[in-house]
Amino acid sequence: MRRLPALALALALGLTAALAAPALAASLPPLTLAPQAIAINSLYNGTDLTVTGQAPAGSQVVVRLAGAAQTFPMKEKGRVLGLLWMNTDKVSFANAPSVFLVAASPEAPAEAVATFGVPGLAPGITVESHDPDTAQLVAEFLKFQKSEKLYLENAGQVTLGPDAGDTRPFTAVLHLPSRLSPGAYTVEVLALDGGAVAARGQATIKASFVGVPAFLADMAFGHGALYGILASIIAILGGLVIGQLFSGSKSGAH
Description:
Blueprint: H1 3-20, E1 26-27, E2 32-34, E3 37-40, E4 47-56, E5 60-66, E6 69-80, E7 84-97, E8 100-104, H2 110-116, E9 126-128, H3 134-147, E10 151-152, E11 156-160, E12 167-176, E13 183-193, E14 196-209, H4 212-222, H5 224-251
Parallel strand pairs: 1-14, 3-14, 8-10
Antiparallel strand pairs: 2-4, 4-12, 5-8, 5-13, 6-7, 7-9, 11-12, 13-14
Helix pairs in contact: 4-5
């Protein structure tokens, strides 16, 4: 019986070590991002982000870009009277990134890519709904985000160079979506050895409105009343112009 405390202590230490294992991964050298910031102007329709760095020799690389965690309020659909599909209940998904893009080197293990890719988000997302099948709801949410091009598992390419001593260079190109919101985005690089994370690196890139979108955003959030007046004037003028165009086409018809 005296051995039980020692056995319990050994098990506790083993569990602590297992939980701390991911944090023991080595740090990669600083990453290089190009561009260093993302400018969202009136012509922005998505852009490419290039990430370069050094990984341990022989490793595979997974690159992830994630937006800040937020809550997504949505409507759950269901059959009403067994005939029509309609919104039947409110559901919200919390702790989900606004954007999540993943790219992996060609020989990265598929299981590891899934673990660190979009399917790996599921355990961290919390659901508020009357539907007890939250796992199915999360699966549908991830499917919807992928259809919106906001969550992608093949969001670019990762090219590995030859080993040079203890390291090998890599270059990743991520295709950022057109629906990118202003804010800070985390770029994370995972170097895999046999499917486990051997080293990791992280950087941050900021997306900002510039030009006309910046002016409109400043008006909307900083001068709401004036923005509302201008929007109304523009709508009225637009309606008058369209009315004149259609009235002219009718008078010229025979």
